[in-house]
Design goal:
Length: 140
């Protein structure tokens, strides 16, 4: 039966750098695509409407898309920055719960392959793949 190792603290956050950085970058690119798509859609959907505004004590009537584009761009850039930071943090921790057990499996199974059948795969309580660890420990 797989034992749950609850006292192990996370020492490094990037245990499998290539996998984790790729995982984080994919989510950040998805965010960027969402912001870009949102900006383009608002611009296109407001292309046929007019808006009036006052600038330097003069009444200006122009296409809505032209008037609101700077505000949309600034809002989306600020939102993109904040959400990207949050996404990096969240995906780092989520990817660690996947990459950490994968690394543990590699190390422990290398020991089993060399003939040490006393090896046990110990994972943290909230790590993914605890069922697989339990099955591998039972098999060993």
């Amino acid at each position: 039966m797989a034992q749950q190792n609850t006292y192990q603290k996370r020492r490094t956050y990037l245990v499998q750098k290539g996998f984790q950085i790729s995982f984080i970058l994919k989510f950040c690119l998805l965010l960027l695509a969402g912001v870009f798509l949102s900006t383009v859609l608002v611009f296109l959907l407001t292309q046929e409407t007019l808006t009036s505004t006052f600038r330097d004590s003069r009444l200006i009537i122009d296409r809505t898309a032209t008037i609101i584009l700077p505000a949309i761009a600034y809002t989306n850039l600020i939102t993109l920055g904040l959400i990207t930071i949050a996404t990096i943090i969240v995906t780092l921790f989520v990817s660690h719960k996947i990459a950490g057990p994968m690394l543990r499996f590699e190390k422990e199974l290398a020991g089993v392959a060399s003939g040490d059948l006393r090896k046990k795969i110990l994972l943290r309580k909230k790590d993914q793949m605890t069922g697989i660890a339990k099955s591998l420990n039972h098999t060993i």
